[in-house]
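Data card: per-record layout.
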Amino acid sequence: MSSVRSIFSLLLTTAFLLTGHGIHMTFLPLMASDIGLSQTVIGISGSAYFAGFISGAMVTPHIIARVGHVRSFTTLMAVFLCCFQVLPMTDAGWIWIVARFLLGAVMCGAYTVVESWLSDQADPQNHGRVLGIYTLVVLGAMAAGQAMLGLAYGDAAIVFALISILIGCAIIPVSLTSSLAPAPVPATRIDFMKLYRRSHTAFAGALGSGVIIGTFWTLGAVHVVSVTGNADFAPTFVAVSILGGALVQYPIGIASDRIDRRHVLTLLCAMSSLTAFCLSSATDTTSLIVGAAAFGAASNSLYAVSLAKAADNSERDEFVIIGSSVLLLNALGAAIGSFIFGWAMRSAQGDILFTLIAIASALFAAFIAIQPKGATAVATDEQSSFVPATSASAPAALQQDPRAGEIAEEDRLKPTDTVSATDELGSEIECSTAG
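The structure for this 435-residue chain is written out next.
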């Protein structure tokens, strides 16, 4: 409880920020469709958002090092508001693409400020708990945003005002917090090839999660409106998907602690494919809600399990780079999926979004299923404990290994061993190691 009190202002900022973020991620594609932008342009603008997210992860640490956490956050939120307020003034596709790129960059920057602060407040023993609380706040706030959008959707001016108010409110707790700001954030380091060498399964899971969930966020609401003709139903559809994922993340996580995570990821991809095929033919609200809950339950845990698999296969000193690679590969998959699927929907001139998602999910399931255990396989009883996680985060959340607490405990309990070693002259010496 004391750990929660110490980070309360940061969690409050997160709640405001992610509520506004949840609304704008659903609302902007719907508005773009309303003003006549094609599905191709909507898909490209979604790709631009995720490309901006990747760019923000690279640039924000340098901004924080220059002006500090609080000034960085207020500046980033000011840029967000300026870009966001430009959108209702124009129907030019290129302006939407540029604006969404900047929105993605500053949103990643805001995550970086908050999450680096949270990581600094949490010691290694309670880092996993803090990350779990943060994930709960993120998912709850994004679902609450959908409920607010459902109430206000009829008036675009009210929606824009509501999002702007929430983003403005997010600035207040961070600006007034009495907690000392942490040291500057280390530059983001990624190595996709190292991630692939460590675990083909984690690589495929991270990329697949981005393609599946990123495309859903970019085009899912547009698909539902096209099928039902009821724009007011879209926020409910998205909210049910979020809640479906939130409710099963812990059970799936517990299962992944006891079963080879390669099998868990295969099953999740297969279930994502099956539920997406069901959604591709659903037209009434009841079947869409049931399908959204099932699809969200299967697909929203892909990222967290992929991150856990990456943690299993990474050394203690390389988790930061491996974890950051998982997160940004997820964003890259979202950018690629949004672009290709948006173009394909435009070319097919039909509601084929979930058919495409189903095919992609099945391909990722097949790839993961045929992977041999290989030299990097981890025995089930040696897997690290699952920690809830969401891709709505920045690499700063990974500056501490979520296994740090259990690693420290293992090292404390492990007896000192005496081993025999040979020096370069060939004489044996006794040396003590702590594992």
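Known properties of this structure: Residues 194-392 form a domain with the Growth Hormone; Chain: A; fold (CATH 1.20.1250.20). The chain has a mean pLDDT of 86.

See the next section for split statistics.
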